[in-house]
Amino acid sequence: MRAVCFDGFSARPVLRDVPEPAPSARGVVVRVQATGLCRSDVHGWLGHDDGITLPHVPGHELVGIIEEVGDDVHRFAVGDRVTTPFVCACGHCPECASGNGQVCRNQTQPGFTHWGSFAELVALHDADTNLIAVPATLDAGAAALLGCRFATSYRGLVHQARLEGGESLVVVGCGGVGLSAVMIGTALGARVVAVDIDDDALARADRFGAAVTVNSRGLSREEVLAAVRAAVPDGIDVSVDALGREETAAVGILSLRPRGRHVQIGLFPSDPVLPMGAVIGRELSVLGSHGMPAQDYPELLALVAEDRLRPQDLIERRITLDEVPDALVAMAGDRSAGGVTVIDLGP
C-alpha cells in the first residue's frame, strides 16, 4: 500500500510503498476514505511523543470501510463504515471499566503507538470497544474530524466543564481545535468570545458563531483581558486554551469569574508556569480533555444529524496523499494556510 512515512524525527516525510497491515485478533484493518491533518501529527513528526518508533506513518483522525476483521471481533464486519477516537481503549482496565477509555492505561493511538492513517490502510485495535458506526450520508471529511478535534472539544466543554446554554465561553487560539470549540459552544447556546492573533482565523470564528472576536497581536496580557472583560463584564464562565502556550493558558484562566472552569486542550511543548494564585483565590477549576471514549459519540453524532453542528464547514482544503509531505512540513513551520486540511483517499 502507499503511505506517508518518515525515517527520522524532523526528516522530510516521503510517500512510498510499504507492507499492508494485518488485523490483530480483536482488531480490524480499515481502508481509509479520509483523514485529517492535525498539529498533533506535527508534534509526533518533530519527536515530541516518546511512544513513536521509526520508521513511522502518522495520522490519527480517520473514517473508512472495514476491509479485514480479527477472529475475536463480534460487533463489526467487513464493509462497515467506521471512525474511531484517536485514543483506542483496551476495554478491560479500571479506567475503561469506569467509562473513561480516553485515559485508558493500555491505550493505543493510531499514528503514535503504531502506524496511522496517512496510508491507504490502517490497523485499529480492540475494535468492539473503539469503533463507531458512521452513516453513509455523512461527509467523509466531517466524519474524520470527529475522531480528534471535535471529540476533544466536545468532551472538554460538555463532560468536563459542563458548559450550558446562556453561559459565556472564551476560546483562545482559533485553529482547528479552537474553531471546533467555537462551533460546539455556539451549538450549545453559549456566548462565545474568540481570541487569536490572525484576522482570518477570527473571521472564521465569527462565521461559526462567535459573538465577539479579539485580535491579540501586539497586545499585552492586560489589554487582552480588558477586551474580553468588555465583552463579558461579569467574567467568563468557561475558558479553553486550544493552542498550548503559557500566555494563552494564562489569558484563559485569568479571564474567568470566580468558580469558573478552564479547559486545557492545547498541548504544551514543556511543562508551563500557570497563574495558580488566581486558581486558588478564585476557586477556579483547571480541567484537561484528552479525547472522548467511543460510547459517548452518539450524543455528538446527534448534534451533527440535527444539523446543529457541521464539521464539514471547517474544511478549507482537501488534498491527496501525494501532497501530505509538503503540507506537514508547512504546518510545522507555521507556513500552512489557515483552516482545516483533510486528506482524501477514496469514495
Automatic annotation (TrEMBL):
Domain Enoyl reductase (ER): 8-342
Gene3D superfamilies associated with the record: Medium-chain alcohol dehydrogenases, catalytic domain (3.90.180.10)
Matches recorded under SUPFAM superfamilies: GroES-like, NAD(P)-binding Rossmann-fold domains
The entry's keywords: Metal-binding, Oxidoreductase, Zinc
Cofactor: Zn(2+)
Sections of the chain in a coiled coil: none
InterPro entries reported in the protein's UniProt record: ADH-like_C, ADH-like_N, ADH_Zn_CS, ER, GroES-like_sf, NAD(P)-bd_dom_sf, Zn_alcohol_dh
Gene Ontology MF, one: oxidoreductase activity
Signal sequence region: none
Pfam families from the UniProt entry: ADH_N, ADH_zinc_N
Family as reported in the entry's similarity comment: Belongs to the zinc-containing alcohol dehydrogenase family.
Listed name of the protein: Alcohol dehydrogenase
